[in-house]
């Protein structure tokens, strides 16, 4: 096996000066240039030169807006074996580097910075995403670590779907989900005066990730969809080359730096998945950090799981959420304890209704005192989901009398 080596690279941000004179005061510097360069000493680099010609990079704002997406930049090699890249202009602000792959002149990937949660991320101190700030008149240095890509590696080892060369079509839409929890003065749902209390922004990226961000509070300006909307949590999805999720990490805090979408964000839990042969989920498994308190290590522990059953001929798919390993203390055995269970009804492959049941006071699921918590209905245009309506537990014989808890409408872009 080829020995893995770690190379530390420096990202040097050179801020451009605005040369125009302003009679009322000095010019305000609002833009800069990013240059990727190496921080290794000349002697070290001469002993082990990098035969690289370019890099594929993705840069996003901390709000998730893509500034550069899987874009190739050129590198200039110097006699001592070091390199610098072409300049890239950026406005002042906060950013995340979310993809960094070094390639040769044939675009063959040679080195990459792993993404947090990937198998290779344990080999570096600061995996992607790496947060940085650009301020007018200042130079910011960011130091990502790259690992050489060995013959045994594949993109998933680093958390990517691809290594930035081939663009894979993603069948998932970018969309925003708007949740209304109050019917408004007219007393009619899905009209303009409904009160929105939450929205979820879902963005899919060709570097093998999908990010789902929950904005839970309107900002100080009192206007939704502006930069001061308050993030409550986000999920980071990892997608394999077959389009299947293999991991989803749930974040519920901004970490010590107070900035969302940086490497120190607080992890609540992460999920892994197993599949039936037809591609449907069989198990959705929730993991905690284990006794060492470190995520993505061998002692990470199962804390709960959902077991999905195959659909019946009538199109009903049952699933059980288990949060107790039972008397034997071993997960995935017959005495595991069901807490909630669900019935999803499908028509022509589309989910049309979900019913959520919970065990009653006897603590035993599937007995007479179990009760319905809620049900949801789904509306589509063709095969595209447009809205979800959640109703309170069915208290009457006529489902149309059920109380609406919220309405979610999706807008695609």
Plain-language structure description:
The chain is mainly beta and 413 residues long. It folds into two domains: 6-158, Domain of unknown function DUF4458 (Immunoglobulin-like), CATH 2.60.40.3540; 175-412, Lipocalin. The protein is 2% helix and 49% strand. The protein is built from two helices and 25 strands. It has a 14-stranded antiparallel β-barrel with strand order 12-13-14-15-16-17-18-19-20-21-22-23-24-25. The relative contact order is 0.09. Mean pLDDT is 80; it is low at 10-26, 39-48 and 165-173.
In brief:
The chain is mainly beta. Helix content is 2%, strand content 49%. Strand 3 (54-61) and strand 4 form a beta hairpin.
Proportion of residues in extended strands: over 45%
Please state the CA-atom Rg, rounded to the nearest Å.
25 Å
What is the name of the CATH topology of the largest domain?
Lipocalin
Helix and strand succession?
Answer: EEHEEEEEEEEEHEEEEEEEEEEEEEE
Main sheet makeup: 14 strands, antiparallel, barrel
Q: Roughly how much helix do the residues carry, as a percent range?
A: under 10%
Number of helices: 2
- Average pLDDT taken over every residue: 80
Structural class: mainly beta
Unreliable spans are: 10-26, 39-48, 165-173
What's the number of extended β-strand segments?
25
Record the strand order, biggest sheet: 12-13-14-15-16-17-18-19-20-21-22-23-24-25
Q: Assign the CATH class of the largest domain.
A: Mainly Beta
